[in-house]
Every structure is written in C-alpha cells, then in structure tokens.
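2.7 Reproducibility. Because tokenized structures are sensitive to small changes in the input, we list the exact sequence used for ATP-dependent DNA helicase, including any N-terminal residues retained from the expression construct. No trimming or masking was applied before prediction.
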Amino acid sequence: WAGTQYEWSNKVKEILQDVFKIRTFRPKQLSAINSTLSGQHAIVVMPTGAGKSLCYQLPALVKPGLTLVISPLVSLMEDQVRSLTKKNIPAKLMTSTSSKEETSIALNILKDKNAPVQLLYVTPERLAKSKRFMSNLQKCYADGRLQRIAIDEVHCCSQWGHDFRPDYKYLGILSNMFPNVPILGLTATATAHVLSDVQKILNIPGCLVIKSTFNRPNLYYKILEKPSSQDNCLTILEKLLKYRYKGESGIIYTHSIKDSEDIADGLRKRGLKVGCYHANMEAASRSNVHTKWHDKYYQAIVATVAFGMGIDKPDVRFVIHHTISKSMENYYQESGRAGRDGLRAECVTLYRMQDIFKVSTMVFSSIGSLEHLYGMIKYCLNGTLCRRQLIAVHFDEDWGNTDCNKMCDVCSNPNNNTKEINLETHCKTLASIIDNAEKIDTKLTAQKLLDAWFLKGSVSLRHKGKEPNFSRSIGEDVIAYLLIENYLVEDFHYTAYSTISYIKKGPNMDLIEDKDFVLCMPVRKYS
Ligand code: ADP
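Resulting structure tokens (single pass, no recycling of outputs):
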C-alpha cells in the first residue's frame, strides 16, 4: 500500500507538509492512508503515540466530504478539535457534555450540503442515543457527503479488550447502513482474539489489518524487587532520582491517589523536587503540576494513571511503576511515554507478590480483567526470556531473530541463575495447607499461605514437612506462578469498604501427577 503511486499521492504529500507541517510518514501511516482512500475497510494497529490520528485526519482533506470520527475520550477529542482548528482545518465535536448550541451546530453540519466542516467528532454514546443524529447522518450519506467513518480505540467493541464499552456494540450497524463508506478502526491493542472480535462486531470480517511494530528499541525494560516497607521503597526511588536519573525527567506511576500523595511527600522530605498528580485534584492544580514538570522544575511527577492524556514531552527519560499495571496493554501504554525522542530511556517496574492482590481486588469485577492482570504478572515473573520479546509475543508480533541489544535486564545480565523447583512436591504441600485451613475454618491470604509454607506465622496453619530450600522471594514467585497457571485461584469477598481476595486450590491442582514437573524459577539478582 505504501509503495504504489495513486491519483491522490501527490496531494497526500502536499497536505502532509503544508497543512500538518510533517516531513515524512512514520511506519505504516501511508499504508493506512492509501488503503482507506481506496475505499477499503481497515483496522490500524499502532502503539500509542505512533501517530494514528493522522491516518484519518489527512485523508479527510484529500477529497471533499465529511469524516465522522467516533472516539470515547472527550478530552482527547477536545484536544484534537483545538489542534485541527489551529491548522485551519474545520472540525467540530458533539459529546454528552456539549451545550444545546454545540449540538445543534453538529446536527446542522450533517444536514447542510454546504457545511465547510471536514471532521466531526462524536462519542459512541451520542451516536447510540441520538435518533436525530442518526437520521441526519443518513441524510449526509444520501447526499454523498459521508466520506469515511473513523473509529478510535476500536478495541472498546470487544469485551476481550481491556477497555470494553457497551455503546461500541451499536457501531455494528454502520457498515450495513452506509455501504461503500470505508470504516477505519484504530487501536493500540493487537491481540488476534480482540481483532477478530472487533471485525465481527463491526461487520467487516476479514478487513485489512495494518499493524506497525510494538518494539521500542530505545526503551530499556527492567523489573526490581519491591521492598515491603514504604520507607525502603522511597529509598530505592530516592537513589534512582538522585543518581541514576540525575537531571532527567520522568514519571512515577502509583496504584492509588493515597500512594501518589504519600510517595510525593516522602520524596520531597528527602530533598527531591517532585509533583503529584491525580484525578481528585482541581483542573488548575493539575495543569500547574504538568507545566512545572514540563519546564523541568519538577524532576518527576508521582501520579496515578489519570496522568496520561496530553503528555507531549519527548524527553521523558524514565517511567517507574511503583505498582504493577492492571494489564500489559496498560503497561505498554504507560511505560511507552518514555523516550518519545528516540533516545535511550528506562522503564522500571517495582514488583512484589502482594501487589497482585491489591490490583486484582480492584479489577476482578470486569470481564476478562484477571486474565489481563495475569499477563502483566507473567511479564514480571519472567527472568529467563528477553522482556521485549515477551512484549512482542503479547502483542502477537513475530519476533524472529530481532536483537534486544541488551536493552532489558534479562539480556543485559546473561549470568542469570535459575533454580529448578519440583512443582509436584510443593503443590502437594500447598494443597495440604489449604485443605487444613479449610478444616479449621481459616481463610488464607497469599501471605498466610507463604508463611505456612515456610513454617512461619500461625502454628495451626503450618505443614508437617520441611521448609523449602529456597528464599521466600522465590516462594512468592512460585505462588504467583501457580496463580496465573490456575493451580491456585483467588476467591473474592466483599466487605463493607473493600474487596479481599483469599487463596483456594485451583482446577490444575488436581492434575499434579507428573514427577518431572519441574519449574525453572529465576534467582533474581536485583541491582
Ligand atoms: P496515537 O493516536 O497513535 O496515540 P497521535 O496521533 O496522537 O498518536 O500522534 C502522536 C504525536 O505524533 C502527535 O503529536 C502527532 O502530531 C505526531 N506525529 C504523527 N505522525 C507524525 C509523523 N509522521 N512525523 C512526526 N510527528 C508525527
């Protein structure tokens, strides 16, 4: 698609340079633009920040007519409309928060044959719920003005995606209602399962899928063992900021608002200049923190994932996760804010077993979420495979012989030790601890199970055998491994204020028979 000369090729080049002031395309952008200009349905899969918007914004200017952009994020739409308007590209939006006047302008654009607007942004909710919008859109189509339908974050159609939105299901009617209007779906979620589900829901089976690589060669990936005390965590962060990342800018992602405030406070007390950012702050203070970070007054922003949109700082040199993300998709997106300038940057995750349960109790009620979280844990537990290869495999990318160039902790440390652990023996021990706990009516957390296994904690929970001949940290990894492989399962209980998860035997525990069932656990040397 990128190598062919089309009747619009010269115009595309002109618009790129004159309107968007961009000299060259990034990988796959031209393929996406040519395919949609040829009238094909297509789904574009590119990592966040790779430049998906250009794939529908530029084609909107090639021929007269209207491009309808369906997007779930109001603030992102507002940003885009603002930036298009600055470029003198007529664009408008209609969301659930639009005033009556804005709504009526948007509706008129669809009806008015002479409307100058080239891009109209709408939320799926508005599309699904406004009959008037749909009837006006039909008029726009009947007039031959509906040129293209772009659906941003198109994975939201699928409940297997990490961000399912019920109103996206409604979009399935578009391909029947508007035959010959090319649909262009855009997403950073690339798993084959989600993509085929999206095609089914949108009624565009077998459509073209244009995918760019997820490999970010300039990002160094690393896992650090997270200490149990907050103070020791602060010491790690302090050292990183004072020495390794001295004079550089970055982000520290935390699990909760409270964590972000506590960690920012703790780091300030240790003499570091950091800002704090979360959704409970006033818009003005958030913007103030963002600016101070942008201008290098703050070395780092300690933030919840609310800090994400609108970050256009190219020289973010580090992204530290104080707690694991809720999925690999989220992790890729959050860590991917590092090194946009193409220079080396580091993505560090502090991992410990307890955090699994902190996150799992938060996400377990949404469909497929535990599976997504367990994907993240696999990434953390891994100590033998190249981390960027794991990321590539997760995004269904063919890794082949791509070289990591020692840009992850596994590849840069070839002397990684591993310890062989006979799962059969240990699973039997763990199963007996769980059976006994049930008998004496005690609910087991992972921590209690670990204690009992290592002959610590409550005497009544301990087993009769020997203490394992490896460290507790390996023990934690084994329990996490058993959890993601369904030997153990989480059992969620609601309380008045929160959810707690306990540990039970999982279905695979019954399959343990093979005497050679040996697990190779990495003995991590954290530095
Ligand atoms: P995505 O939607 O994939 O997350 P965006 O469309 O928001 O990414 O683009 C991210 C940034 O990259 C924007 O600032 C955009 O202007 C810029 N950009 C897009 N394409 C190019 C290009 N070919 N060359 C330089 N910058 C680009």
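Residues 22, 25-26, 29, 46, 48-54, 312 surround adenosine-5'-diphosphate (CB under 6 Å).
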